[in-house]
Amino acid sequence: MAVDRRTVLRAGLAIGGVLLAAACSPPGPDTATSTAPSSSGPASPGPTTSPRPAEPTSSRVLLAYFSRAGENYHHGDRTMLDVGNTKVVAATIERIVDGADLDVYEIEAANPYPEDYEQTVDRNVREQQDDARPAIANPLPDLAGYDAVLLGGPVWNVRAPMIMRTFVEGAGLNGTTVHPFVTHAGSGMGRVRDEYVEMCPASAVTDGLAVRGEEAREVEPSVTDWLRGLGLPAVRARRNQPLAGPRAERM
Questions:
Q1: Measuring CA to CA, which residue among 90, 151, 87, 158 is closest to residue 124?
Q2: pLDDT 10s per residue in the chain (251 long)?
Q3: Nearest-CA neighbor of 146 among 23, 1, 5, 9?
Q4: How far apart are CA 208 and CA 184, in angstroms?
Q5: 101-107 and 4-5 as β-strands: parallel, antiparallel, unpaired?
Q6: Strand 60-66's sheet: what is its strand order?
Q7: CA 237, CA 12: separation in Å to the nearest integer?
Q8: Distance CA 191, CA 169 (A)
Q9: β-bridge mates for residue 151, sequence order
């Protein structure tokens, strides 16, 4: 699948050299007001010019993610999901990002994972033991020209699914700033960030965002704060609006 180019309000992205900068400061006045001379003292200096805020620079960001629907863990039980929770979080990111050229690429397995939860668990264990690289169904994106990648996936057995290694290695992610986000069943980020650091020694890999599966549909405030912390300050604050969409998944 080719990259689905979705440009979201081309307002630019203030990243300050790398995308790890803090959110922009609000603009201030351009000049200070001069003080009129008093009758008993010397005249005060004329107007002084305050530094102008730095102009935002244009940036391109790739949102790439892998997600699995079907039978999933849910509050200690199982539930069937039409759309995986990683995809729910990715859709939230896409919806609220403002101020960057954002492209979206969904990582799809050439051999889809089973809908059955236990069968997927068993397959994942085999792939981890074999250090497998599951094939991706569609052509990989060209990362040339991207400043950063928002890289999402579930946490399986405390690690990233092996198909994430297929993507990272095949797309040539090493040397690109990587902002990971994951969905999990209680493990948090697990070993996912450490794996990306290992695979991409020339990359800056941030701490990332970890979302519990049951909370994927209520994650917009956390996503907003996360994006601002990455130097994506221009995001639409929609905290009071309910999110539409399917229930979240665990894998």
A1: 158
A2: 444 444 333 333 333 333 333 333 333 333 333 333 344 444 444 444 444 434 444 468 999 999 999 999 888 899 999 999 999 999 999 988 866 678 999 999 999 999 999 999 999 999 999 999 999 999 999 998 888 999 999 999 999 999 999 999 999 999 899 999 999 999 999 999 999 999 999 999 999 999 999 999 999 999 999 998 988 654 544 333 333 333 333 34
A3: 5
A4: 13
A5: antiparallel
A6: 4-5, 101-107, 60-66, 148-154, 177-184, 209-212
A7: 18
A8: 18
A9: 64, 180
What one-character DSSP code corresponds to residue 135?
P
Distance CA 99, CA 74 (A): 35
88 near 246, Cβ under 8 Å? yes
**What is the token pair recorded at 73?**
């863990």
CA 73/CA 232 separation, integer angstroms: 32
Pick from 191, 235, 228, 224: which is nearest to 98 by CA? Answer: 235
Q: Distance between alpha carbon 243 and the CA centroid of its chain, in Å?
A: 18
Structure token pair of residue 57: 């620079």
Helices (H), 139-219: 162-171, 192-199
The runs of H, that is alpha helices, within the chain are 85-96, 117-129, 162-171, 192-199, 220-229
Rounded to a whole number of angstroms, the CA Rg of the chain reads 22
Chain mean position to CA 184: 15
- Does an H or E element contain 73, and which? strand 70-74
User: Based on the number of CB atoms within 10 Å of its own CB, is 23 exposed (0-12), middle (13-18) or buried (19 or more)?
Assistant: middle
Kindly state the DSSP code that residue 216 receives in the 8-state scheme.
G
Tokens found for residue 78: 């199982």
Q: Which residues does 105 contact at the CB level (< 8 Å), separation at least 6?
A: 1, 3, 4, 62, 63, 64, 65, 141
